[in-house]
Amino acid sequence: MTHAAMEGEFAAALTNPSLPVPAWALSPRGDVDAKRFAVYRNNVHVGLVGVLRAKFPVTARLVGEEFFSAMARVFVGLEKPRSPLMAEYGARFPDFIAGFEPARSVPYLADVARLEDAWTEAYHAADAAPLTVAALAVLPQEQLLALSFAAHPSARLVSSRFPVGSIWSVNQADAVAPVAGRQPECVLVTRPEADVTLRVVTAADHAFCAALFAGETIEAGAVAAFATDPSFDLPQALVGLVGAGAFAAVIRKGTSR
Fold first, then answer.
1. DSSP code, position 44
2. Alpha-carbon span 17 to 133, nearest angstrom
């Protein structure tokens, strides 16, 4: 058996308790020690639960440590890392929560987890200088509607039928105040400097920003925004999104600057 094959067999057995301990993985006594191997399995399991706990602290706080650990253990049993970068582990956790029957009593939990996953992605995104309001101001006004923007590598949008931005925000403090109402919220996640920031935006601003992130022109984005809310304020939205660090460059006729 090749070294690569041995590594594959060892990793498969380590993450899947239904598989036997590899016959070549012998103890100092010369026999297969299932109990010792079980310790390795448990360490991997506990470590991955810890990764989820660190990545989704508000999600854990909302349901309590005992419930979160139990839920995370089920997920870890089903989903193992697909990348050596632990920051990427748990990307499927929000979808798992959405289908996790015991979590049905907390209907906003999956969206809060999606927001926390977006925060992690923004934190680890590539560095890039954000487009500034000053750079926006010198663009030719007659050409503005035909321009597109390149999204900043850290920029993310999360939309929910629950006030997830407010829920996340109040859970940053030691003493948690209740979130009034159950209104939907759209959240823009950016990292214009060194710190990740979350900003609740209107549904129209979300539609506008989503269109621009998809490569649409400012005009097409405005059409989507006005369809969402006829009172949409294009100049205010554009300046606000640029000021938040949502974009990295202006795209004009196949080029960017």
1. H
2. 55
